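Posted in: Structural Biology > Protein-Ligand Complexes

Title: Requesting predicted complex, (2R)-2,3-dihydroxypropanoic acid in pocket

I'd be grateful if someone could produce the 3D structure tokens for the following input. Sequence and ligand are given below.
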Amino acid sequence: MAKRKPVIVVTRRLPRDVETRMMELFEARLNPTDVAMSAKRIVDTCDGAQVLVPTVTDRIDADLIAKLPETVTLIANFGVGVSHIDLEAATARKIVVTNTPGVLTDDTADMAACLLLAAPRRLGEGERLIRSGNWDGWAPTFMIGHRISEKRLGIIGMGRIGQALARRVRGFGMTVHYHNRRRLHLDIEKELEATYWDDLDQMLAHMDFISINCPHTKETHHLLSEERLSLLKSHAFVVNTARGEIIDEVALARLLASGKIAGAGLDVYEREPAIEPTLLELDNVVLAPHLGSATREGRIAMGEKVIVNIKSFVDHHRPPDRVFEI
Ligand code: DGY
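-- Reply #1 --
Done. Output follows.
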């Protein structure tokens, strides 16, 4: 008798190639409407399933995890960040959690580099002006921004993405500084020509640009609090491609509006898809809609990682991208 395929529940539409492969390998319950599923719908759809495949748009909290059918033993997240999943609750229920590290490193670092350029060169503002039909043409004093070469960039979180950004910005002539839980190996520091700051507050006070590249955890929630943001120089720019919750968004908007911080380039927000209304009114902010990993190549690679994690798990092997050990 043919073995029954493992049942998996996928909460959002994935690239077609990924969904096709999932349907070949598994009994995949897909979401063709792509409308984010309510907690109840996720739980109901998981009836008899072994695997749940959520994304950053799902809140897989303790309550939802407690209601998941006993059959669900793997949460194979489509994405690297897992702060939308209650990992303690998953551990308590002995549910394995996997993610998709590595394959979106370059895309996310590219997005951070884009915003590092776009914000000080006023790209968003310029684009809006052209589309409004009000551009009068070039003038020597028109829309003057700031150069990034020879400026100091402070990277918060020097993991894969932070390091990929460091490699990119050296090409722009920036000097690289970083704060991380652990100092990098000296060989990597040397290769990146990066200066380590043990004290985040000290680093913030000395930088021209800050880029956030650490994961969102209990420890990094509002890491850039109002108090910390107030340490920045008034000509400093802040870029965030990690998670909105790492910055106090209301405080950031207030400091940007009052000119205490020069500008920001943001790809992520505290209450996505809602955005702090003040940010929408500010010209010194470039806003992107969480596009860090949004390349065709990246999203297919993420899907392939999800598939490998599920396949290893259902074949009783160790999934390569386990987020924690049970
Ligand atoms: C990630 O992989 O963390 C992206 O931000 C999408 O979730």
